[in-house]
């Protein structure tokens, strides 16, 4: 027991979009910088830490952000640049171990158990990752480490900005005890209110809630949450994949009012998600679409697929079907997201070729396109009608 066993690391870039902008224009260093649309209906996508110190956070209307910081610097987003930086971050992580699971544009889990012989204990590996990202990309990142993925993620959030926090197994319960229950990813605003009514605000207090009451407050996740609160969760990478998901979401600088535009953005996100799945050797049995209106109304709809898949083609089909048939129309869309759910590992499944694509051809083709995109950038290849599926 000790730091040696904390092989699950969670790395998350700090104020990702904003940090890239500050890097590329050093005169912005130390200023309240946000990335987002400057117009009347603009929204904050990312806020630098100096901006956060003024009470500015992501998804906040730009008008409010301006009021909080009259000297606010608003930078329009450069999504292609962030995507490129994201790919380079993930490449740096893969230099340490292939056991990585990217869960959004700027964060990933790693299991460094196998990398210890080469690179030393997990805390040294975490520092190495952070300094590589600093040296190669000139960007700040934070890393959390633990014996469990849930605790590693909570730790990286506590380490921010530009920090590292490794929580040994025997210290997990005391580390979690004073934190608000909301740090646990299975506890959303509704469950938080229900727990509040029981007088429960911290993870430590959660431990004293009887199982039946906990179940009423937080639903079927109760046993998992109780184990976590007790500091006994050991869920790492590659286990219980079905409980996990891989997704991406975007807050738009201008509300999207054209349904065709929303549809197009959803298909692009479906492609991004399918690519993350393939990179982590995962396939999804379900996919969901999330949309938020300017007034905060949020709608989520999901579809189950007959076969697990990591194919962009398949995910796009289902996402478009959800948008066309299931999602009630909202006059304007401020945030859109796509998430792959009910995951399983392709490598551990007997019909891996079926899982990675449509039939055998698409899997190979899409993986080849991934590799080409990694080397030449996302614009280098688009699927043309002349490009036929072939044996991969
Ligand atoms: N993002 C977005 N809309 C959201 C959430 C995120 O456009 N609703 C974008 C902007 C963020 C990036 O994704 O920079 C990464 O999201 P994070 O949640 O990791 O937030 P940050 O990296 O900005 O900050 P932190 O330092 O808290 O990780
Ligand atoms: Mg981040």
UniProtKB/TrEMBL annotation:
The record's annotation in InterPro entries points to: DNA/RNA_pol_sf, DNA_pol_Y-fam_lit_finger_sf, DNA_pol_Y-fam_little_finger, DNA_polymerase-Y, DNApol_IV, Rev_trsase/Diguanyl_cyclase, UmuC
Q: Quote the subcellular location field of this record.
A: Cytoplasm
Q: What class of enzyme is it?
A: transferase
**Chief localisation class:** cytoplasm
Q: How is the cofactor bound?
A: Binds 2 magnesium ions per subunit.
The UniProt catalytic activity note for this protein reads: DNA(n) + a 2'-deoxyribonucleoside 5'-triphosphate = DNA(n+1) + diphosphate
Return one Gene Ontology term, BP aspect.
Answer: SOS response
Ranges of compositional bias, category Basic and acidic residues: 368-377
- State the active site: 107
Q: Identify the EC number(s).
A: 2.7.7.7
Q: Does the keyword Cytoplasm apply?
A: yes
This protein's name: DNA polymerase IV
